[in-house]
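User: what does the whole thing look like in 3D?
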Amino acid sequence: MLSRWLIRVTGLGYLLVILAAPVGLVFYRAFENGFGAAWDAVTTPDAVHALKLTLEIAIIAVPANTIFGIICALAIVRYPLRGSGVLNAFVDLPLALSPVVVGLAFLLLYGQQGWFGPWLADHGVQIVFALPGMILVTIFISLPFVVREVVPVLREIGTDQEQAAETLGASAWQTFRRITLPAIRWAVVYGVVLTTARALGEFGAVSVMSGRIQGQTETMTLHVQGAYENFDYTAAYACSVVLALVAIFTLTLMTAFRPKEGR
Amino acid sequence: MRRPQGLLTQGIAIGYLSVIVLLPLAALTWKAGEGGWSAFWDAVTTPEAVSALKLTLVVSFLVALVNAVMGTLIAWMLVRDSFPGRRIVDAVIDLPFALPTIVAGLTLLTLYGPNGPTPIDIAFSRTAVLVSLLFVTVPFVVRTVQPVLMELDRETEEASHSLGAGPFTTFRRVVFPVIFPAILSGVALAYARAVGEFGAVVLITGNLPFKTEVLSVYIFGRIESGDPSSAAAVSVLVLAISLAVLLGIGALRRRFTRWEHA
Amino acid sequence: MAITVRQVTKRFGDFVALDNVSLAIPGGSLTALLGPSGSGKSTLLRIIAGLEQPDEGDVNILGEDATDVPARKRGVGFVFQHYAAFKHMTVEKNIAFGLDIRKNPRAETKKRVGELLELVQLQGLAKRYPSQLSGGQRQRMALARALAVDPKVLLLDEPFGALDARVRKELRAWLRRLHDEVHVTTVFVTHDQEEAMEVADRIAVMNEGRIEQVGKPRDLYEHPANEFVMTFVGPVSRLGGEYVRPHDLELTLEPNGTTERATVERVVHLGFEVRVELRLEGGDEVYVQATRAQAEQLDLSDGQTVYVRQGAPVAS
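Assistant: Here's the predicted 3D structure for the full assembly of 841 residues, as structure tokens:
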């Protein structure tokens, strides 16, 4: 049918122009000067440090949001308060905020002139322009994903199995560990994949929080921007390729663990 | 189930969300109002701020519109059509989510910038803003419409055809009303994302004040200039506008799903 | 008395689910809580189980006050309408669950599970998953799971409601036989009066949060305490302003004393029984249940005039 071909051409054409072609070209540009040059670019001390920093942040942010995400989902579905719509709204808030605004908010809280500024200074604790601050904003922006994946699953499985376990003598913890957790297992995995992708790719909020001190508070994403602005295009493209490969890996995980129909 | 673990769970959830989400936003709101109404008004009505505001809102609106159409079309293609490589295309839709925004911006600049292989050069133009925001918002409408399309009962369309309706009429009267709420949900997400986008626009647009500077870049500039109060003021204004738009879309959505709850 | 419920009241918001309900259930009996939707029967069962708390009143299980005891400590076995099977565990593990969490020695648990699998006739299906079982098999598994921890009381909430008609009938008979073997005090909830009559020793008929009557099935059928019990527990026809059992109506071809005149609307042959649908002179519809023999004797056809009255069932 004509309309089928029309849809195909329009849809695929749009995706090609907007998504595929640009990404493809970056791969090309990265290896334009040979594989060696690209490799050198991603193994400079600054690049390696940026990679390490990015991973350090993710290793704290992702587990925190996983554990507390499950708890928040339980609070929303199983033990709802009258104001549990509010809890839900708070969980969704990071999706609606600009990352720059997020960075600003944390700056105003933990920065020198912030609410906790003086107290932190007195105790010699540095949050902003340092790793802790970057971890905090990353937790903020990657917060919703585990919760949003687990909530519909918790709703769908209902409380029957948990009540059955209760009548059989299981304590709350036993019920959670043996019945609830296995039931939400795949939703949690998918949520973790999304959370990790978001945490690794964060740019705006960490940009505000980091102070952009090369070799010290630069994440991979900030390093890409820094390299480009210093006209080190090979480095910018090469590091982008690293991030793009991580993204493609994330896509395969997402496809593999995507929850089946009926969300 | 029983009371003690319920309270504990609620308590931990509320505590975590308060520290991570509520507290910073409280600090932001407080800072915005610190200098009183006049300071707030001054901060949000500087010519540069107003220009950034107008640009951002207009382009985000356009982006929402384009996504409503293209997102639905792509979702239709993925659900109703089958062609070689469809599964790959389905996976690729989420690329803007998985790819860091700065890399997204770099890729667009590479292809459509001054050193690109094509004669197209949109760098430092408003078109660049549009294209960047289109990139990052690709998944939203597609992913909200897809499951609804998949669950759609084909028999209702068959019934429509048996009653004499052509494909367009069937789409308009039978299919569209069912997917419209999902389109609205996706549009809301796309709009919120577009308004706040930073990384994707920062390289390709050149951030020229009064020309291609979006709100997030303007706010960033205010922070770097050591003027967090104006930054906070503008942030809170944008938050309020986004909230109003999202509530509006939500109300529209509810109106169109009256038949579900009737 | 194994279970004593005393003056229990339960509200959900403005809705009164149970209104000052009291009930005594003898040990070793098989009691049915019978009633329409909304009568409070499931709520009462769940309060006995400890899955709900009464607003007023108390619950006594085997002589001990259980009102404040949480469900997990009451020693009740509960079977849900939709099985509540642990989907990610095999049949074996489902049944063993109660023993596993009590840290029972493995060998002992394995033995007990084997015994139970035999009892519920699911031998050979131990390693399957619930999704691979039929509805009837899943419910038998749920029963075995509940029995594994030697409950003092076994509670079943519309246990056969989700199954199709034939399986339901099979499982009813099976439950009765199981109870005769195992002798644990059993209470089950149903809205199906046929099921209650067939399976239970005693039935408590409930309506709108109150118990209307408690007694043996035959007593409820033949001596209903009020109109509700009469119409709910068995078929009724209305004649002369009263409720009568359709098989207690007498049909004759000639007027006979207290008979009323009626026209045959339809004669429905339901296998052994024949249902004769009549329309009385006043316009009311009545139906009479006759045996095949009676119907043949009368040789009725549509539109025929007959005469009907309350009478002793025609001896045949």
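In plain terms: The longest helix of chain A spans residues 45-77. The interface with chain C takes residues 160-161, 163-171, 174, 178-179, 182-183 of chain A (CB under 8 Å).
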